[in-house]
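Example (one chain per record):
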Amino acid sequence: MADPMSDPESIPKIISILSSLLERIASVNDKTTTSSTSTNLMPPHGTTSAFQGLTKPSISIRGYLERIFRFASCSPSCYVVAYIYLDRFLQRHPTVMIDSLNVHRFLITSVLTAVKFVDDICYNNSYFAKVGGISLTEMNYLEVDFLFGVGFELNVTPVTFSSYCSILQTEIQYLEAQLSSPPSRLNCVLTEEESTSCHQKQLAV
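Predicted structure:
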């Protein structure tokens, strides 16, 4: 029997879709940042100092997301919610740009925040820090910074969840057009238990 942790087929489609989307965004913004630096302009990262690294991590965005999936045991829904939180952060901070120097920290922090809201059982910050390759102190700081960054707006209604799934669905269509492969669906729907759990947590927040 194949090891599910090493079997590419066991990786949910949301991982490849989200990584493809963020890789394209980071690639475009990397060029903008490089251009700003070469013309001695201050890059627009003043509000993201906590997330900004000095060097580009050696692990790819997809590799990083797969690592999180394999070791953190998050449900696929967590990655959709993490994407929603990340979008909320960016909407509240329009000068922030996702690039190769901050995307990994944004990912580990948004997934950590999402898993605490969506899943009933999850690992603690110390474990997530090890998975993300950062210290516990930094993980704690990033989490607090991210929560303030989204204004503690953690509620995700089924309607919102579904709308973001539709956005990610268009990314599937883009990828399949590139690969000329048959169309498929992103299974991105809250289960009845997840919907109930989210509703209860919304009432508690």
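Caption: Confidence is low (pLDDT under 50) at residues 1-8, 37-48, 180-205.
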